[in-house]
Structure formats: C-alpha cells, structure tokens
Design goal:
Distance between the termini: 56 Å
Shape: globular
Structural class: alpha/beta
Helix content: 25-40%
Strand order of the largest sheet: 7-8-6-9-10-11-12-13-14
Number of helices: 17
Largest sheet: 9 strands, mixed
Length: 435
C-alpha cells in the first residue's frame, strides 16, 4: 500500500500513462482507478486489474489498500482522477477547444476533428465520453505529439459544465445551441442557459475565443466580453456565412467568409438533415481560424460519414430509413420532423420514441411533438413509449420496443421513407433489421 500525493501519482502516471476504469481492460503500462457507482465498487476489482496487467491500482478503501503494495490509497478515487487530469492538461500550452450544447455537440466535435486533422495532430473525445469521468480520461491521453485538443462536455444537472471547464481549461470554445433537454435535472430552460454559459464565463475570464452562431438568441444573451468568431446560415453579418443549396437527401452546403478572405465554396456531404448544416459551418469556421486551407476543409466534410445512429441515411432492401435514434429532446425532435417533411421522399412515415428526462413538462412536450407531426401532415405515425402513450392523438401507440418489433414483424413494411427518432434509452435503433 502507498498513500499518494498528487505529485507522486503524477510521476507514476508518466511512467505508466494508460489509465483505465474497467478492470476487464487489459493494458500495458497502465493504472486502474477503482471508481464507485450506485451499483458497483471498483475497490473490489483492484486485484483483478493488477492480474490483468495493470501496474498499479488507485483505491480509496483502506482495507483494500493493505492487501497489495501496488495499491495506491487516496481519499476519493474520482477526485484523484480529476485532479490528475487537470494537472496533466496544465502541462500543455496547445489550443484546447471546449465543445458543449443541447444538440449537435458530438457531431460538431467529430466534424471539428475531421477538419483540423487535415493539418494538425488532434486529440479529441472518443464517442460521447463527455462527463465527469470521460473528460478526465480524454485529457489524460494528451501527449507531446498533439497540436490541438477537442474536448466535448455534456451536462444534465446544474453546475456540471462549470466543473468540467475547470478541468479542461479551454482556450477556445463553442456552445452549439441551447434548447430543452434534461429538464428533469435542470428544472428550467434558464437553468440550461446558465449551466452551458459556464463555458463562455471561463473563456471571458481567461481571454479565450468564443465561436458563436449569431442566429441563436439564447447564445446572444450570454455572449460578449471576449474575442468572438461568428458564423451563421443566411446571415451576411457573420464572419463565416453558409447556405444549404440542396438536401435531397444529402446536404450540399455553400460557404464563404469575408473575415478570413475566403471566396465561395460548395461542399457535397454525406449528411442528411439541414439542421446539420450549422454543425458543418462551425467546423468550417474553426478550420479557417486555424489556417486550414479551404480545399482541405471541403475534403474533410465531403469524406466524413455520420455514424452511431446520428442522422444516418440507410437504404434497406425494403425501405429508405433516416435513423436518428441516438438521442432526442423537444428541440431536436421538432427540427427533425420539419426537416423530414421538407425532404423529397415518397410515402413518408414516422416512428417516434419517448424523449426522456423531461420531468414535469414531459407530457406537454410530447403533445407538442404529436401536434407538430399532425400539422405537418404526417399520416402514418407510430408512437413508442409511455410518454407518447399519454398524448391525445389518433396515431398508433405502442408501449415499448418489444411491441414495436412485433408490429413490424407482422406488417412487413415496404416502399416507405421512415424517420426513426427517439431517446437512446428507448432503443429504436434495434428495429432496423425489420425494415
């Protein structure tokens, strides 16, 4: 057993720079952090981690720590992980871009990485490891080869972004947008604005750069006080301006910039959903700011293919499917419906799953989505989940994923264009084999 200071732990990390929080992950030159959750205690798996190949295990149970001289005792494992990550990040003077927002933050992060990797060695958040554990793990992957880092930060409770920016210490930042999500945790839209706005607060205090979509009214309310780089669709006053030329179903985006002395360019992408145009324009803006050549920017956007059930267009043997079932909230759901309505596709239908974590407003928000679908003229709509089930409508309502699967097996749908949209927890992505 060793009782650790931050300096001692950091010296061990420099010798063994692979950090894991899952004892089943076998790594060489690694340190296992025995995190605890509601249903597990990592201290119980510390020896297993050493047996699997880790050099050390960081624990916070004194009884566990006495069992092996390669156990490092700290007061709290999560705090130790976060302090280690912050200390490590502070050893680097490279640009660090913080990304947050209600919708589009993961897609924007991926596009930023694609564009900036045309010129730089970039570290960026893998998947959606954007919380109080994922952010430290990302920061601990920084090494001397990296020239830029992109760190995604998510939140579903007040104050979380403020905590994360203190770890990330961003030099540049973007809030993609602000809308209704996780209302159960935040309590109100104002709570969301205040929480996300912590990124702007940090950048103001440290003279960083804010990248802002000037057409978002909530962002306008909390912006100012530091250097800004602006972008927008169809807004000539922005530093970088874009326009969706077509979306049938893939987006063609034209863009230009007086601020960066860039003429007109058009990029044909593999994205569907005009709402993704703002995410692409954000990536273009960062690329221009960091002196990526326009032809390299266009190449990155043309070759990037969305994955993980985010705005994916899938042509099956029987139907055309717009799969957007990674997540859903009132803002993204409404935009998805409006975009799908505008797409030049025949015989459209919707499969919509519950939007989770909306708290007391849940039924009202689900009713609004149902009303929106009706007003847009959608005739064939399947609603999945108890929240949609409590709405007033004539659409088909199914209580859960299993009943949806049974319905699709019996109906054997052909020749439809189908939008699938819902929160990840509903599991709508699992029905693609039935379509």
């Amino acid at each position: 057993m060793m009782t650790s200071t931050l300096e001692h732990l950091y010296n061990l990390f420099l010798q063994h720079p692979n950090v894991v929080t899952d004892s089943r992950q076998v790594v060489e030159e690694g340190i296992f952090f025995a995190l605890k959750g509601e249903t597990f205690d990592g201290n119980l798996f510390a020896q297993k981690a050493l047996d699997a190949g880790c050099n050390y295990a960081v624990v916070d149970n004194p009884e566990t720590a006495r069992q092996n001289d390669r156990f490092i005792l700290v007061d709290d494992v999560l705090t130790a992980l976060q302090q280690l990550a912050k200390h490590h990040r502070q050893q680097f003077s490279i640009p660090v871009i913080g990304v947050t927002g209600t919708n589009g933050k993961t897609t924007t992060k991926e596009l930023l990485a694609a564009v900036l990797m045309e010129k730089f060695n970039v570290l960026y958040t893998q998947g959606n490891l954007n919380n109080h554990i994922g952010v430290p793990l990302t920061l601990l992957k920084l090494n001397k080869e990296h020239q830029i880092a992109i760190v995604e930060m998510g939140a579903n409770h007040p104050g979380e972004i403020a905590d994360l920016v203190e770890l990330v210490c961003p030099t540049h930042g973007i809030i993609t947008n602000i809308g209704k999500a996780h209302l159960e945790g935040f309590g109100s839209l104002e709570g969301i604005i205040k929480t996300k706005g912590a990124l702007y607060d940090y950048l103001r205090a440290h003279k960083g750069y804010i990248f802002r979509n000037v057409t978002n009214p909530y962002l306008s309310q909390i912006a100012g006080g530091t250097e800004e780089v602006t972008y927008a669709l169809n807004e000539l006053k922005a530093g970088v301006v874009g326009c969706v030329e077509q979306s049938a179903p893939f987006i063609a985006l034209s863009w230009n910039s007086q601020r960066f002395s860039s003429g007109a360019h058009t990029v044909q992408t593999k994205f569907i959903g005009s709402y993704n145009a703002e995410n692409m324009l954000a990536a273009i803006t960062f690329g221009l700011f960091f002196d990526v050549e326009p032809n390299q920017i266009c190449h990155a956007l043309e070759t990037y293919a969305p994955q993980n059930n985010r705005s994916q267009y899938i042509k099956t043997a029987k139907n055309e499917v717009v799969m957007d079932a990674y997540n859903a909230n009132p803002a993204s759901m409404e935009v998805a419906l409006q975009n799908f309505h505008g797409m030049k596709l025949e015989n459209k239908m919707l499969i919509l799953g519950d939007m989770l974590e909306l708290g007391e407003t849940s039924i009202d928000e689900h009713q609004h989505i149902v009303d929106t679908a009706k007003n847009l003229g959608f005739k064939k709509v399947i609603l999945v989940g108890s929240n949609f089930g409590a709405t007033q409508s004539d659409y088909l309502k199914l209580p859960n994923l299993q009943m949806l699967k049974l319905y699709l097996e019996e109906e054997d749908l052909h020749d439809y264009a189908i939008l699938i949209k819902g929160s990840h927890g509903i599991g709508l992505d699992r029905v693609i084999t039935l379509l």
